[in-house]
Design a protein that fits this description.
With about 475 residues, the chain is an alpha+beta fold. Among the domains are: about 150 residues, Beta-Lactamase; about 150 residues, Histidine kinase-like ATPase, C-terminal domain (Heat Shock Protein 90, 2-Layer Sandwich). The protein has a 5-stranded mixed sheet with strand order 8-10-11-13-12. A 4-stranded antiparallel sheet has the order 4-3-6-5. Strands 1-2 form a two-stranded antiparallel sheet. Helix 7 runs parallel beside helix 11 and helix 8 crosses helix 10. About 20% of the residues are buried.
Length: about 475
């Protein structure tokens, strides 16, 4: 019969071993994916650099190529795993690596192919054609062959092997340390740990309503219990949001698909004639589906890990004024009064992306402000940030919905009626774009009615007035 101390020590060792293994596998998978993406990007940059450097080897005055430099660049590219062929603008060969040294090219291809087979890649050699230009004028073309979609150099393989070894050593060290510490602490923590493991198992099985009851005088154990309770609550919220997201997507797709299906079925079976009116109705449903997909694509681009922002200095007050002018017809149709105030505030932003933020916020204000209502936009400027607010005197947002309005496909209107709102993606896009600029966006209800959206954008450095 084993003692509690021994059993807990072994359990801790086992849990740590499994955890370290899973973390090691996940880390290896993540690092491997990131590294492959990095290598792919570097190879793309390398091919573009080769093309750029080769384009500079053409003498525009003599209409001749610098053969020595082309040869040097070609052999240097070969050592990196790129086999190139250079042609002039008439398609005549200037330099061909395979014709120059077929044995070296064959050896390079065999070495890379063998290395990638050992790595487990199912790629193959392919070629890519790039234009060679100088001062904006094409002077020739480049055919470059390499192992795709990516290939690893010997140093890359050494790095990955060293990384795997390091993860293994870390895992072994963590396991050894857990055995020592587990033996020392087992007596004090056996009971709460056993209970914690039991609760963790139930949470893993989907029982998110369970909580750790009881008190402990050990600070770390108290934090562990509190964290476990918080984890259960967070997972419960995530599960509810996942189910809601699935239901919302299904709801958004169900109506247009059902309409299209019934109309097309009726026309196929001859119940309806394919009149222009009915075909137009089907086309409108397809457009509706397309708009939903476009909104989701915009959200995906806004939430990407490295969104492409083209920042440039802009006066936020003037930028908002330009967007507001696009809403003149909407404001007139509902007899709404729009007031724009504040001070000029110069900041470096992506004008198109920030215009989309303003458009989405103003569109929401116009949509939910009652006829004859008022919309107020103010811009504030400080030394560290630019701030602007969009306020309306509409019905406001239910307090219980405020924490979730920036989630994907979230609609306070549970019926998801398109007459009272869109797909619930606009505010998610707003949050993603603002976050990509390093800022924050918040929503709150005004005391006198209506709601207020506040966007804060940090200034990376002192913004100067344009000359």
């Amino acid at each position: 019969m084993q003692t509690i101390r021994t059993r807990i020590s072994m359990a801790i060792a086992l849990v740590v071993m499994v955890t370290v293994f899973l973390i090691s596998v996940a880390s290896n998978w993540l690092i491997k994916g990131r590294f492959e993406a990095y290598v792919t990007q570097q190879q793309k940059i390398r091919t573009e650099n080769i093309a750029e450097n080769l384009g500079l080897q053409f003498d525009m005055q003599t209409n001749k190529w610098n053969q020595d430099s082309v040869y040097a660049l070609g052999m240097y590219a070969l050592t990196d795993g790129f086999i190139i062929k250079v042609y002039d603008k008439n398609g005549l060969s200037v330099w061909d690596a395979e014709n120059h040294d077929m044995a070296s090219c064959q050896q390079v291809m065999e070495d890379i192919a063998a290395r990638m087979r050992e790595y487990g890649s199912a790629g193959s050699f392919g070629s890519r054609t790039l234009a060679l230009s100088q001062n904006g004028q094409q002077v020739g073309s480049l055919s470059i062959s390499f192992f795709g979609p990516f290939f690893l150099s010997e140093s890359d393989v050494v790095f990955l092997n060293a990384l795997n070894l390091l993860l293994g050593l870390i895992g072994a060290g963590a396991l050894l340390l857990s055995l020592v510490i587990g033996g020392l602490l087992a007596r004090r923590i056996s009971r709460p740990i056993t209970k914690t493991v039991d609760i963790a198992k139930q949470i893993a099985q989907g029982h998110y309503d369970i909580h750790f009851e009881g008190q402990t005088k050990t600070s770390e154990l108290h934090q562990l219990m509190s964290s476990l309770n918080y984890l259960a609550e967070a997972l419960a919220r995530q599960e509810a949001m996942r189910k809601q997201l699935t239901a919302d997507v299904a709801h958004e797709l169900r109506t247009p698909l059902a309409t299209l299906g019934s109309h097309l079925e009726a026309m196929i079976e001859g119940v309806w004639q394919p009149t222009q009116e009915r075909l137009t109705s089907c086309h409108e449903e397809i457009i509706r589906l397309g708009k939903l997909v476009l909104d989701l694509e915009r959200l995906e681009r806004a939430e990407s890990a490295d969104p492409a922002l083209s920042k440039a200095p802009a006066d936020m007050l003037e930028l908002i004024r330009g967007v507001c002018s696009n809403f003149d017809a909407d404001l007139l149709s509902k007899n709404l009064q729009l007031s724009l105030g504040g001070m000029p505030s110069f900041i470096s932003v992506d004008r198109d992306a920030m215009s989309r933020v303003i458009t989405n916020l103003l569109s929401n204000a116009v949509k939910y402000t009652p006829r004859g209502g008022q919309i107020l936009i103010t811009v504030e400027d400080t030394a560290n940030e630019t701030l602007f607010k969009v306020e309306d005197n509409g019905p406001g947002i239910p307090e219980g919905e405020l924490p979730y309005i920036f989630e994907r496909l979230f609609r306070a209107d549970k019926s998801r009626n398109r007459e009272t709102g869109g797909a619930g993606i606009g505010l998610a896009i707003v949050k993603s774009i603002v976050s990509a600029h390093g800022g924050t966006v918040t929503a709150e209800n005004r005391t006198g009615g209506g709601c207020r959206f506040t966007v804060r954008l940090p200034k990376g450095q002192r913004e100067e007035l344009p000359v």
